[in-house]
Write a structure and sequence with these properties.
This protein is of the alpha/beta class. The chain folds into two domains: 201 residues, Alpha-Beta Complex (2-enoyl-CoA Hydratase, Chain A, domain 1); 50 residues, no CATH class. It is 43% helix and 14% strand. It is built from ten helices and nine strands. The strands form two sheets. The protein has a six-stranded mixed β-sheet, with helices on both faces. A three-stranded mixed β-sheet has the order 5-7-8. Strand 1 and strand 2 form a beta hairpin. Helix 8 runs antiparallel to helix 9. It is globular, with a radius of gyration of 19 Å.
Length: 267
């Protein structure tokens, strides 16, 4: 029988991918990696879906790589391991950095510890919401490892260079309040209402914001990380002309004038 280590559901135009090894604080395995990859691509291509939530079952988001996997790497090294298939041309095409290459918003609902590889997964989500019980640690320096999977590039862009160096060098654990203070997460919600609060935000996102606008803005934001201001401005000049001819722009004006909820098509 196939072994499933994630759960997947679609409701209210939101796809939810849940890491499902709660007895191990959702420690990451190769099976989980394959399932998340498949679910992310499937949700991105599914016309019913307008946003994707990634979260964990039970008390943890993801406690990092499973110790059995780490022991295997320590004993045998990484030789012969095949990188995951690329998703899209450009920087965001690699094993754990492909979330920004997806066309739809990806939201991390961090319900507990996000450590090591689990920490990295949150960085490549577009938005990060944390429960009051969430904890964060890079851990790599305390395992004799380095800044893995592009974290040395992404983390400073989210929290600034001084905070990034602190978190990577010390590998100390920070709580949700500190994560919010340094800009690592967007918001912190009470544990008792965490899942409902995240879904309320995402429901507003998929209901009130144009899917076309979100799709184009996401490309602009991540490509803009390697563009000059002039290049980003020229791209925006081209995109605004296409936006003015789109169905979603016409609906955006119509629903505002008619004082009714929008009915965006994404076109």
């Amino acid at each position: 029988m196939p072994r499933f280590e994630t759960k997947f559901e679609i409701a209210d135009a939101i796809a939810t991918i849940t890491l499902n090894r709660p007895d191990k604080l959702n420690a990451w395995t190769q099976i989980m990696e394959q399932e998340v990859h498949s679910a992310m691509l499937g949700a991105d291509q599914d016309q019913r879906v307008r946003a994707i939530i990634l979260t964990g079952e039970g008390r943890g988001f993801c406690a990092g790589a499973d110790m059995a996997l780490l022991k295997d790497l320590a004993d045998h090294g990484a030789a012969g391991r095949v990188p995951q298939a690329r998703i899209n041309a450009g920087d965001f095409e690699h094993k754990y950095s492909y979330f920004p290459a997806l066309s739809k918003p990806v939201i991390a609902a961090i319900n507990g510890p996000a450590v090591g590889l689990g920490f990295i997964l949150t960085l490549y989500c577009d938005l990060r919401f944390a429960s009051e019980t969430a904890k964060f640690s890079t851990t790599f320096a305390r395992r004799g490892l380095i800044a893995e999977y592009g974290i040395a590039w992404m983390l400073p862009r989210l929290v600034g260079l001084p905070h990034a160096i602190d978190l990577l060098f010390s590998a100390r654990t920070i709580d949700a309040a500190e994560a919010l203070r340094i800009g690592l997460v967007n918001r912190v919600f009470p544990n008792e209402t965490f899942a409902a609060s995240v879904r309320e935000y995402v429901r507003d996102l998929v209901t009130l914001s144009s899917p076309r606008s979100l799709r184009v803005m996401k490309r602009q934001i991540y490509h803009g990380l390697s563009q000059t201001l002039a290049e980003a401005s020229q791209w925006a000049d081209r995109e605004i002309l296409e936006s003015l001819a789109s169905e979603d722009f016409k609906e955006g004006v119509a629903h505002f004038r008619e004082k009714r909820p929008p009915v965006f098509t994404g076109r």
